[in-house]
Amino acid sequence: MSRIELPDWEPDAVEYALPAADPADERDRPGGSPVAPAGHDPVVSLPRTSFDCVNLDALKEHPAVDALLRAQLDQGACFRLLRFPCSLRAAPGSRVEEFRFTVQLGQAHTAPRVHSIFPTKVTVEQERKTEVTLEPSLKLGPVLEAKGGKIGRTITIGRPRATAVGFWSETGADWILRAPERDPIGIEGTAEFLVIVCWDHGVAPLEVTLSCSATVRTPFLRWGTRRVERAYEPFALTGCRPVV
Predict the structure, then answer these.
(1) Which of 15, 168, 182, 215 has its CA 20 to 30 A from that of 152?
(2) CA triplet 98, 101, 103: central angle to 5 degrees?
(3) Are 140 and 117 in contact (CB under 8 A)?
């Protein structure tokens, strides 16, 4: 299989604290203060400017691509694989039990639609890299679980120790990560999410908003954070890596 290599994204990252929502949920300490303790905001890192992109149009000539997809490509449809990464760090003395990551595409008439995402449901026992493959319909799946054949292209992404469930519509995608039960560390490290988007006729500048929130626990308190958003101005997807 041919591997699609993407660069390290973290040198061009920006950090955001995830402050507690008001009021905090204190279901584990009856009679206590409803205010989350100071200094326990988890920190998330997001790309500062843009996202890594892979141009999938050359797959039109691949013999494994299914007939319906090939017809779309023949009619001018353009497919791009986008990587949306983030990195999460809990404050000392706390752990992140749940983390939510949302990708929202712009609403302009030139906006693409979501074709497929990864992950949709996966459990990672230890923080590691996961190898993802392209299926003939340009769906994404783990190499060992791909159904209906493979195109022979893979991409490796970082996954934290957690169960991840993904949902999507044509305009965006949403992932919920949950730490293993009774895990003392919680969710930490790098999480990378993949989205294949499609334009029916020609690639236009991409407008994206990312948002994050978390559920945090200390020995005596559990609370949800506010949702933090980062909106990216429309940018041209120049320099996309080709599939070879």
Answers:
(1) 168
(2) 165
(3) yes
Place of tokens 């694989």: 81
Task: Tell me the pLDDT tens digit for each residue of 79-105.
Answer: 999 999 999 999 999 999 999 999 999
> 16: part of which helix (H) or strand (E)?
strand 13-17
Residue in 217, 196, 241 with CA at minimum distance from that of residue 83: 196
Please state whether beta strands 2-4 and 153-159 pair in parallel, antiparallel, or not at all (unpaired).
parallel
Query: For the range 63-70, what are the long-range contacts, defined as Cβ-Cβ under 8 Å and sequence gap of 24 or more?
Result: 64/136, 64/149, 64/150, 64/151, 64/152, 65/136, 65/138, 65/151, 66/136, 66/137, 68/137, 69/136, 69/137, 69/138
- pLDDT for 168 equals 96
pTM of the model: 0.89
Strand ranges inside 90-205, DSSP E: 95-105, 113-118, 121-124, 128-134, 140-142, 153-159, 162-169, 172-178, 189-199
- Segment (H or E) for 77: none
d(CA 89, CA 100) in angstroms, rounded, equals 14
Return the bridge partners of 229, or none: 211
Are the CB atoms for 80 and 34 separated by under 8 Å?
no
Q: CA angle, corner 116, sides to 235 and 122, nearest 5?
A: 115
Cα gap 241→55, rounded to integer Å: 6
